Amino acid sequence: MGSMLPLLASFAAACALLAISPGPSAAVILRQTIRAGRRSAIATVLGNETGVLFWGVGAALGLSALVAASPVAYEVMRYVGATVLIGLGLQSLRAAWRSRRSGRAHEPEDTAATASWWSSYRIGLAAIIANPKAAVFAVSFLPQFVPADAPALPMLLLLAVIWTVVDLVWFLAVVWLVARIREWMARAAVRRWMEAVSGTVLIGLGVRVVTTAA
To answer: Are 44 and 25 spatial neighbours (Cβ–Cβ below 8 Å)?
Structure first.
């Protein structure tokens, strides 16, 4: 076990670098924190991590490899993922526009007071499940950390759990920080600006998903 610790530490460090890299999951979680607050964002994080664990376990069981090897499945997921991102981005831009017209911070339909925990969870889950690059990453990255003399399935499952935990810790920290900033900058103009920026980023990511080759 002692000889495995450096390997697992290296894997955890690689997962941390992946987590802090900007991407669709980060944009969706930030958007949800800005729009609906800490409670909704935590549900979104948990949905995202469910998806991370799904793809990690899928790599162990061969599901991720099937997605990565199927051009049709990859393309369908790519367009579904882009639709999710663009749809969320348009919602944020609409909220920013309505706030600008009314002259006060607009409380969108899915604020912390009205959004269900489950709907926020589904947003995070959809963003990662519909991201075929997560499947490709899982099937290409995780096996690199499986020693030749180790049983593949248990090791891959362990790596999937580590990947999920590292991702969870990072995004919970992000939610805590952004929620504090959101409470501190509660003015209508600031909220409107944050909505507009998050919406623009999400739409940009969605367009990039469909215009960038795999």
So the answer is: no
- pLDDT tens digit string along 104-133? 544 444 444 445 788 899 989 988 887 777
Buried b (16+ CB within 10 A) or exposed e, 147-164: eeeeeeeebbbbbbebbb
Exposed, middle or buried, 98 (CB in 10 Å: 0-12/13-18/19+)? middle
Q: How many CA atoms lie within 13 A of 134 on its CB side?
A: 29
Let me know if 144 is exposed, middle or buried by CB neighbors in 10 A (0-12, 13-18, 19+): exposed
Buried b (16+ CB within 10 A) or exposed e, 24-47: bbbbbbbbbbbbbbbbbbbbbbbb
| Interval 46-80: pLDDT, tens | 999 999 999 889 888 887 666 666 677 667 766 77
Whether the CB-CB separation of 141 and 65 falls below 8 Å is answered with no
Count how many residues are written for the chain: 214
What is the per-residue pLDDT across 163-178, written as a single tens digit (0 to 9) for each? 999 999 999 999 999 8
pTM, to two decimals: 0.77
Q: Is the separation of the CB atoms in 78 and 132 below 8 Å? A: yes
